[in-house]
Design goal:
single chain, alpha+beta, 26 helices, 59 strands, 20% helix, elongated, binds zinc ion
Length: 1239
């Protein structure tokens, strides 16, 4: 009888199906399982199996398997005919999807299991179920692996709590997950199994137990306390068996090709370290769990040189481990003498998590706002809810606790969402990095992480955002930075990979870039070397995680789209309209209110320490600097671009001349540089068209007819950190390095001594050159290969730049952007084999003999080429190159053969082509004569006031800005004009009118900024006042930025009344005066219509006026004497109450008392002493008293504007705006008070 029949006879098959299933099982076990048990089978094993002993084994094993299967079925004694036996090799080659198999489950049970999984992890699919039977033998693999083996191959198994007794035994696996390698994206050949339940042993093995240890070869198991004594007195050749509780289990390490791990045995307060280095015992690493009671035999006492020569117990190849499973693990109390006073609960979970949040570890050191904290060592149980970054070793547990595994070697089986984990001796950190959850758990080499339940869901598809973040752990290993810094770099890396990849940098660069930025921002040196044995075994415990820095104000990265979105969205919500009105806004009429609201601006600082900001932390931006694009809103400025958005930037940089002053950006080498911006101002300009009838209606949005805003940044290029220089910037920095000589040699020294206050330029140069040379990855952001083509070039110096404007050039339909510059031609057109870019000037580029007869050329930019506007500045030298040509005539304008013989009388013009490039030549050596710039003299505001020329170029600080509506086009867009008040250091000021109707909107014309206004017309008003207005050739550029939003313009100059009255010209319209009040001439209080300004009592006194709202207006005029002369000073509205020294309640009382009558006028002195006859006597007397009181007639310090419209020989009274002007024949100096200075 053949063995198959023998096998079949053991069972009473109910059907054909069962018979055939039984036959299949028998064949499977014979072919795949028996050969593993009976040793290596010869090639013709099938035939041999029919014979004797082997077939007996097969039959009994098959019977055992089928009976065991029957026992494990939900309905006992049925055959699992729907399950198919599968060999390991078939599983690996055929099963491409992660799956689960549960032999005993009903369909319903599986459904419940899957639903639970998907509910707890929304967005994830539970593993699909397969009906497969896996039967084989559990064996130890390499490096501590456990593997399921059959004759076809083997596969790695992950077990929850494996028993040493499972090894080398035939088993069948009733409950398992299979994770194929392709699903995880790891290079794990053939995937792996997760044994979710214990394997079923198929035949009884030799009984193992503690009893066997006691007898035998005279070995006696000793306790930890006793063994600790033996450890100190090492006896050569002595073997020990030790029983104790596992205190800690360190992760498997591979050092110099040797794999090993350590664990400790404890008893009371005693601790014994055990080293497992023998490759045949590495599989213990999966069996040993913290809290378990174990007995280990045949231990040898060794000296561990790596651990300062301390003695340690070593596992030998005869050692055995006996685990005594107790149903509940009682984790050991932490006996480590940690720096904390309070001992945390031994095992924490999400439920008692609150306890660890409130108990903040105490502060030890405070250094420059950064706190150093001690971490606490705890144990924790929880469920992985998110894989934040597998490569960087970051996870979330229980949705609110972060887990960082990077200080351990990466796990063989990577964690996935849904895994239950148990962590022992893990560091608890509170707020190490503000970008992560406040509670963080970090493992070190002492920590153990054990998976106590495998996830029911498969691996989520690899996050395309951070596939290369594995570079971060490598950098950490190299540099040994702190965990706070590491976490910050990880977060930045994931953010940058969204905002920069792939359009700005390559994916693999993001990690290095983030790391470099972290080092720059945190300014920390590398940490000390890690000592692995001390970290694992020392008492008390020390490791890099013991201390960490907490800096709540570490910069926060914002992508440019986030930045502009939040600026736009908070533009209006952040502002209360009444706050935009000047002081005393409640007394403004309708038209004054609407005019005041039409333009306003908000400036935010990048750093909360220097002003109002967008977020609580300082901000950090990363992007590439570029010329404005065709779609860019602002054509006057460079833009900063990342992968998703671009933001316009008003930029300045330090002047090349060594005064160190700021000027508008001029260096083209910045184009294409990838930079980090940390110090910047965010500007939102608001434009509002409204018909508010009065102050009371400001909260009603229906009176707003149109509103929009413009968002841009302001910063100085000196404050940039170059992450990746453009080719031109690299050239520029190299040149400067050569010029400044010793700079490179003393670099190290300055790095040490410099506290960050050294000139920005020097720092920038050094950082950029180091980032360029030390860069391990090439991050060229400029176009590649452009430099290798032949081209022609000419060197020019810009003499004058015209403003950019919209023009109908006729060449294209509609309006195109247009501007032109006048430039001096420095030398002949030179041809090159390759683009010289901004390389140093050569001799052949200079026309030596013709130096005194400078040829000029007008370069015309229109359309695309107008994008060069932001970087072409008067006084700077540029090399203009035309690529892909060797024909010099393209760069010679009509008639400019000029650089040799022809004498030119008129400027020749040259149309700049779209593919021409300008390169700033920053250090034109050999050009001493040309360095004396011929650019027009830049005047100050005082110079302009005192000058007599018609066209002026001057520089001034903006102290005020209002929008001026162009009355002729009062229909739709009314914001066509701007009036700026600019002043200089002396405080003298000047008003400048700009017509913006034909130009792209110029950003940066803000109070606090200093502007260069070139080719402006100096004009005199009818009354002799000086003001400036723009002309078609005018241009404005921002040369330096407001230091901070609170900086005030210098005070107006101090004036003496006598001298001021004598000066006929309006050279100083605003001044400060200090004098004594002689008397009041006039006080008027009135309720006026908010629309038309007429007297308002119950309604507007003007017939037909629909207004229903009124404003309280006040006016006063007094005589002031400062000893040198007298002046009549006018006060209005919000200045009157403080002038009269009235309290708020008194003022309100006056307003109420005047409701009926509407107005009152008082003439305390003067020609007639007459007041309105029918006035309320008590009110009149009150005001008369006030005006003559000593409190009011006092010394005053005022800022005043001198009246312009002064006509001495006319005798009349007239109204202008809201003021009455009375003229007399001998009229003293007339002033309007702008500001009442408190003494
Ligand atoms: Zn540690
Ligand atoms: Zn009215």
């Amino acid at each position: 009888m053949d063995s198959e029949q023998l096998f079949l006879d053991q069972f009473e098959a109910q059907s054909e199906a069962e018979v055939s299933w039984l036959k299949k099982m028998f064949v499977f076990i014979t072919q795949h399982v028996c050969p593993v048990l009976t040793g290596p089978a010869p090639p013709a094993a099938d035939e041999l199996l029919t014979g004797g002993a082997v077939s007996d084994v097969c039959v009994s094993l098959s019977v055992c398997v089928v009976k065991t299967l029957q026992e494990n079925m939900a309905a006992t004694h049925t055959l699992p005919v729907s399950y198919r036996p599968m060999s390991v090799s078939e599983l690996v080659s055929r099963q491409h999807l992660a799956c689960v198999s549960h032999l005993s489950w009903s369909t319903n049970q599986h459904r419940v299991w899957a639903r639970e999984a998907e509910l707890s992890l929304p967005g994830n699919k539970a593993l699909p179920r397969v009906n497969l039977l896996l039967i084989g033998c559990l064996r130890e693999g390499r490096g501590g692996e456990w593997r399921l083996m059959d004759s076809s191959g083997s596969i790695r198994c992950e077990c929850l709590s494996p028993s040493p007794q499972w090894l080398n035994r035939p088993v069948f696996l009733p409950h398992w997950n299979y994770i194929p390698h392709n699903a995880s994206g790891q290079d794990e050949a053939g995937g792996f199994m997760e044994l979710t339940g214990s394997p079923v042993l198929l035949c009884p093995g030799p009984e193992q137990g503690l009893a066997a240890v006691g007898g035998g070869e005279g070995l006696r198991a000793v306790g930890v306390r006793e063994a600790a004594g033996l450890l100190h007195n090492r006896v050569r050749g002595q073997r020990l068996s030790v029983c104790g509780q596992v205190g800690s289990v360190c992760p498997l390490l591979v050092v110099a090709g040797t794999t090993f791990f350590c664990f400790t045995l404890t008893e009371d307060k005693h601790m014994l370290p055990v080293l497992v280095k023998d490759s045949s015992r590495l599989w213990w690493s999966q069996c040993v769990c913290v809290g378990q009671s174990v007995c280990v035999t045949e231990l040898r006492v060794c000296v561990l040189r790596g651990w300062r020569g301390n003695n340690i117990l070593c596992v030998t190849d005869q050692s055995e481990i006996h685990t005594d499973y107790t149903p509940t693990h009682t984790p050991v109390d932490d006996t480590h003498t940690e720096p904390q006073s309070d001992t945390p609960p031994s095992v924490m979970s999400h439920a008692d998590n609150n306890g660890c949040e409130e108990a903040e570890p105490e502060t030890d050191v405070v250094q420059s706002g950064v706190r150093m904290k001690w971490s606490r060592v705890i144990s924790y149980q929880g469920t992985v809810t998110e894989v934040v970054s597998e490569g960087a070793g970051l996870y979330m547990i229980d949705r609110k606790v972060g887990l960082c595994l990077v200080y351990q070697p990466s796990l063989r089986r990577r964690l996935r969402a849904g895994d239950r984990v148990e962590l022992h001796h893990v560091h608890f950190l509170y707020r190490p990095c503000p970008d992560f959850p406040p509670s963080m758990l970090c493992t070190c080499l002492r920590s153990s992480l054990r998976v106590t339940g495998f996830s029911r869901v498969g691996l989520s598809p690899p996050d395309s955002a951070c596939p290369s973040d594995g570079a971060l752990p490598r950098l950490l290993l190299e540099k040994n930075t702190g965990v706070s810094e590491y976490l910050w770099a990880c977060h930045l890396s994931s953010r940058l990979s969204h905002s920069l990849v792939p359009s700005v940098v390559m994916r693999q660069c993001v990690c290095v870039l983030s790391w470099r930025l972290m080092e720059f921002v945190w300014r920390r040196g590398t940490g000390g070397r890690r000592d692995i044995y001390s970290e694992m075994l020392d008492e008390p415990h020390t490791c890099p995680l013991a201390q960490y820095s907490v800096d709540p104000s570490v910069p926060q990265y914002l992508s440019l789209s986030e930045l502009s979105q939040s600026l736009q969205s908070t533009c209006w919500s952040s502002v209360c309209l009444s706050s935009l009105l000047p002081p005393g806004g409640s007394s403004l009429t309708s038209s004054q209110i609407n005019a005041a609201l039409s333009w306003s601006c908000r400036t935010l600082s990048s750093d909360p320490r220097t002003g109002e900001t967008l977020r609580r932390r300082p901000l950090l931006l990363v992007g590439v600097l570029e010329l404005p694009s065709q779609t860019s809103e602002h054509k006057h400025t460079l833009q900063l671009r990342d992968g998703a958005a671009a933001v316009s930037c008003v930029v300045t940089e330090t002047s090349e001349e060594e005064e160190g002053g700021q000027r508008a950006a001029f260096n083209t080498a910045w184009i294409g540089c990838l930079v980090c911006v940390q110090q910047f101002t965010m500007v939102t300009e608001r434009f509002l068209q409204s018909d508010f009838p009065s102050y009371q209606h400001l909260d009603q949005d229906e009176f707003i007819t149109h509103k929009h805003c413009r968002v841009y940044l302001q910063f100085s290029l000196d404050h940039l950190h170059i992450l990746s220089p453009s080719v031109a910037m690299a050239t520029h920095l190299r040149q400067r390095g050569v010029e400044s000589g010793g700079d490179i040699t003393d670099r190290k020294q300055t790095e040490k001594t410099e506290g960050g206050q050294t000139a920005g330029r020097k720092r920038r140069r050094r950082e950029a050159s180091s980032s360029h040379s030390a860069s391990s990855v090439a991050m060229t952001t400029g176009p590649v290969g452009v430099g290798s083509w032949p081209c022609v070039s000419v060197v020019l110096r810009v003499e004058q730049k015209e403003g950019v404007s919209w023009r109908n050039t006729g060449a294209e339909v509609g309006l195109t952007l247009h501007f032109s510059i006048r430039a001096a031609v420095i030398g002949p057109v030179v041809s090159w084999g390759r683009d010289p870019k901004n390389g140093p000037m050569t001799d052949r580029e200079i026309e030596k003999e013709k130096e005194e007869k400078v040829v000029q050329v007008v370069l015309v930019f229109s359309g695309v080429s107008a994008r060069w506007f932001p970087l072409l500045q008067p006084g700077c030298l540029y090399r203009l190159t035309a690529a892909n040509t060797q024909d010099p005539s393209v760069l010679i304008g009509c008639g400019v053969s000029g650089w040799s013989e022809v004498e030119l009388h008129t400027d020749s013009a040259l149309q700049v082509q779209s593919d021409w490039r300008f390169h700033t030549l920053t250090r034109p050596l050999l050009l001493h004569t040309f360095r004396q710039a011929l650019s027009p003299t830049v005047l100050s505001v005082s110079d302009v006031l005192d000058s007599s020329s018609e066209l002026v170029c001057f520089q001034g600080l903006v102290s005020d800005r209002i929008s001026v509506n162009n009355r002729t086009t009062d229909s739709g867009h009314t914001h066509t004009g701007v009036r700026l008040t600019v002043c200089d250091q002396s405080g003298r000021s000047l008003q400048v009118y700009l017509d913006l109707s034909h130009t792209p909107y110029p950003p940066g014309l803000l109070p606090g900024n200093t502007l260069l206004l070139s080719a402006f017309q100096r004009r005199l008003s009818r009354s002799g006042g000086v003001y400036c207005s723009d002309s078609p050739v005018s241009s404005v550029s921002v040369v330096s930025l407001a230091q901070s939003s609170s900086a005030r313009p210098p005070p107006a100059p101090m004036m003496h009344l006598g001298l001021w009255a004598l000066s006929r010209e309006q050279r100083s319209p605003v001044g400060r005066v200090k004098g004594h009040v002689v008397c009041f001439l006039f006080v008027q209080l009135q309720w006026s219509c908010s629309l038309c300004g007429s007297l308002y009592t119950q309604s507007c006194s003007s017939s037909g006026c629909p207004s229903s709202s009124s404003v309280f207006q006040s006016k006063a005029k007094l005589v002031m004497d400062d000893g040198t002369g007298e002046a009549h000073v006018w006060f209005s509205d919000d200045l009157v109450r403080p002038l009269l020294g009235l309290a708020g309640s008194q003022w309100e009382g006056l307003q109420r008392a005047l409701r009926v009558k509407g107005h009152i006028r008082v003439y305390p002195r003067g020609r007639s002493l007459v007041c309105d006859a029918d006035s309320d006597n008590s009110l009149l007397h009150f005001l008369l008293c006030v005006c003559s009181s000593d409190v009011v007639c006092r010394s005053l310090s005022l800022t005043c504007r001198k009246h312009n419209n002064w006509r001495p020989d006319e005798m009349r009274t007239f109204s202008r705006g809201d003021r009455d002007f009375m003229t007399r024949t001998t009229r003293p100096l007339q002033l309007t008070c702008l500001h009442l200075d408190t003494d």
